[in-house]
Amino acid sequence: MKEILEICVGERVPPEYVSHKVPQGVRENATFVIDLKNSSLSHRDLSADDNGIFSRHSSPTEKVQVKFKSDGTVETVYPDISCEDHVYLVRRQYSWHDKSKNFSRVIYKVENKGVLTRYAIVQYKASGDVTDLFLKSHGNSKKKDEPYYRVKPSVLLKAKEAALRSESPKHIISLIEKESGGVLNIDSPSEMLRNREQVYNVCRGLPERKRCRNTGPPRRTDFVKLMNLMQHDDFLRDVSFDKKSKKGVEHIAPRTFAATDEQITWIKTYCPGYRPKSQVGIDMTYNVGRFYVTTLVFPHPMFVYRNKPDRHPTVLAAMMTSITKDTEDYEYLAAFLSRKGVKSLTYGTDGELALEQGFENVYPINASSNVAGTTGNIHLCCFTHVETDIKAKLAKTNVSSCEQKKVCSQILGTEKDGIRIRGLVDCENNEAFDSMLLRLRPAWPAGFSQWLDTQRGRLRPLSATLKHCMMKPVRVSAGLGNPPNKWHNQRTEAMHNVLKEEAHGEIIDQARIHEIVNERIVQQQKSEFVKALRGIGEYRLALDYSNLAIDPDRKSVV
Length: 558
Prior knowledge:
alpha+beta, 4 domains, nine-stranded mixed beta sheet, seven-stranded mixed beta sheet, 16 helices
């Protein structure tokens, strides 16, 4: 008792032996004196020590009256309280590890008139080898082979405060990581929120948060701010100005290209035209401001979702903003990728003529080859959009919905009871495709059959798109498996929803959109990938990249 009082109250400990952080990953006999006056340290954080789950606890409290000497040593401890002066509450918190009685922790804290004294003591007691005691997961975790790291209560409190300011869960995670100096500078997983699910749980029960939306008029582009961003930012790489005419009036139409060096490297590494591991999806969105936003996204093959090991997360690879959505705009985007070293590309679109024309001007495909991707580029087309177009055309010719489904399955294939039913796009080569198409045509309405061969509103007839952008050899070469999966463009549409959510529904200008995307999407996804290397956060390393894992369990003491 005297030793506890002399340390916690009398402060009789050399400064060099005082820690200003919570000890992490200590698994041997050791005692630490913690300075609670550190503004970033809460006494409640002392139990978040990266040592897994402690399931049994005992917290005895003793009230004593103490007389100290002038040098801080204890002269007398009175068990019987005679007055209210020099009365201290000594709190001990004993905890035994869930896996073994051989490892325990004791936290000593002293209070005077309801206020904690400056120092607290954390003591660890270990007998035998306790190295393997810390692999148990949390009771609610679906990943039973992952260790549990308790998040510091002070971090959860910050999350609640941010939630009351109407921040989104993703933004709350980014804010806390930024306050801690970034993911690379965080000492322990306990200093970070685990994932968005934890943020939802923290925010549950809070008063309803108000959502602020800017419904005012669209803002004009701040050109000075745009140029300053390009000079000082590693995301916005280029601003190009062109003149456009609208209703006889000429105006300046800026285009921008944005991508970090890391994102460009991802495209070159995972989405080339030969033996790609992934596919870039390209699409345009609006309703953000007085401009269009075109994003390039792809499923990152290096990572998977924490609870869905067969699914890869969608990442933003590049972005363009433009006042118009003409072929020249998309050719500018593709040309800038080429200048950045992307010499070949596997990419997908949803049939928009200007976009397809702009990209094929820079990344043309070999439409005469039987096997795509051996040289050059691969252009995929979204199955969902083609199916929608086919059904819409058949509906105009008064074909029933049942017959519409039949024609779609004949062209695009289908699946029944887990078994794939081959369609026209599942042919092995051009000759088999032409032969099957010739057999199917007589059963289709004449108007629909003619429509397949028209080029109106398209880069090429739909029959040619089916052969050169959707047929089996193309998809196999694009890295979609064998037999190949169908390619869909929902990932880019999902990214647009994320973009609008992160903008909080604001109507913003062409400069502000780059700040928002960089801060709330690009940097956030980078942080999640760094966390995945340590086995924490939303994602995990895919099996083929598991050798890159970093042990999150720090052996050193902070």
